[in-house]
Amino acid sequence: MAALRFNPSRIRHPLLQTHKPISNFTSLTEFPFQSLAKFPKTKLKSVHSPSCSISEASSISSTLEAEEDDDDPTAELVYLDPEIDPQSISEWEIDFCSRPILDIRGKKLWELVVCDDSLSLQYTKYFPNNVINSITLKDALVSICDDLGVPLPDKIRFFRSQMQTIITRACNELGIKPVPSKRCLSLVLWLEDRYETVYTRHPGFQKGAKPLLALDNPFPMELPENLYGEKWAFVQLPFSAVREEVSNLETRLVFGASLDLDLLGIEIEDKALIPGLAVATSRAKPLAGM
Q: Any stretches that span the bilayer, and where are they (predicted)?
């Protein structure tokens, strides 16, 4: 049997943990375009207990206010897992789009969200809508490398087709291969989490805004001839056999991609049968890379 439960433990939230730093690479900054004066923030009131001394009550009040200031949905996140080798991160997943948040001008706030498939790298940055172009994106991608000490990736995956021109141009100028793909699983899961834990708590949040992750549904297109299969059949394999095949991806005996079951919180018994589609073709390599 398989159990599905999302594992959010890898997702970092924009909290300043002064007593327990996230890592040596973590830094959080206030978004300069957002003024909290327009969206007043409710302060926690200290509760004075008769059993506490004045100094103790003052200490409790200061701690509560410090924790509240740390839990700031307007903060930006810069994180790299200290246990990961920066050179091993060769692919990024990015989203560069407006958010259901208004700035002090009443205009939509934009955000760049970047991660890798294991969420070992996490980066967010807000932008006003009047600086959205490929130059801004290119500079932001370079700043990630400067801030975290990581090299530019070989590939960048993105799922929003409406941002293809800007993302492609920025990637090309940096020598990065842009890959339009809906296989941005880690990014999508992180965005769903940020919607609930960050955006809805932001002082400029717009209730009733359009869904953040409304994916495109393009018209069906004819399959290229080099991807035609000559024979096909529905098959099933025990999970142990599937896992063995997936291990070949890590040793590069075969090429392809797999899902991070740990990130998804999926547990499957070795004997569980996994259904699939087997395709026989003389064009196996281009078909497998589809």
A: none
